[in-house]
Amino acid sequence: MKKQKTLKEYYQESFSFISNSKKYIYSILLIFLAFAILGYFVSLPPEIENIIKERLKEITLLFEGLNLPQTIWMIFSNNIYVSFLSLILGILLGVFPVIAALSNGFIIGYVMQKAVSIEGIFTLWKLFPHGIFELPAVILSLGLGLRLGATFIFRIRELRKDSRKALLVFTIIVTPLLILAAIIEGLLVLFIK
Questions:
Q1: Which of 23, 76, 120, 122 could connect to 182 by a Cys-Cys bridge, CB 3.0–4.6 Å?
Q2: 17 located within any domain
């Protein structure tokens, strides 16, 4: 009979897989940061800026009238969905994680620039608390999605093993980080109202 792994062993396996995936995670982080800087400094044509503003307005309207548990659930369910999709769709040559990193980076840079221009640099503290947990979780999902895409291209025989390890990381590391981020962000949303 096969010995059941302990939780500690699962975490060790997860952190080892993360360590072996560093180049993919760092690549996604670099893309994200580069496009966040672009989003902050590049002026957009009015048509594109209006599209982004409309999308942000739609997101804001989703939170209207929600109580704290509903707000937390809305934030968590959205983040877990996007992170999981990014991880799984990474198998398709890593394209989806790269697009998600550059688009989210750009939008965050854009929002930061608008917030600073309206309320000053100290308004960024509002973004910082939930970003401590949310951004690492999302970047981790995107990086592991990119790794799965590379595995599919270059080492397809290892795809099943890598997919299983990526899902383990998602379950025991990414999900708890996203829960913490949703609680903090939910509290901030209600506090800022």
A1: 76
A2: no
Contacts of 181 (CB under 8 A, 6+ apart): 75, 76, 79, 130, 131, 132, 133, 134, 137
Distance CA 176, CA 21 (A): 20
Distance of alpha carbon 32 from the chain centroid: 10
Positive or negative torsion for Cα 149, 168, 182, 29: negative
Q: Give per-10-residue mean pLDDT for the chain (193 aa).
A: 85 96 97 96 89 87 86 92 94 92 93 86 72 92 96 92 96 96 84 61
**127 within domain boundaries:** yes
Residue type, 130: H
Q: Indicate the pTM of the whole model.
A: 0.89
* Boundaries of domain holding 114: 23-192
Within-domain flag for 157: yes
Total domains in the fold of the chain? 1
Cα 91 to Cα 85: distance, rounded to the nearest angstrom = 10
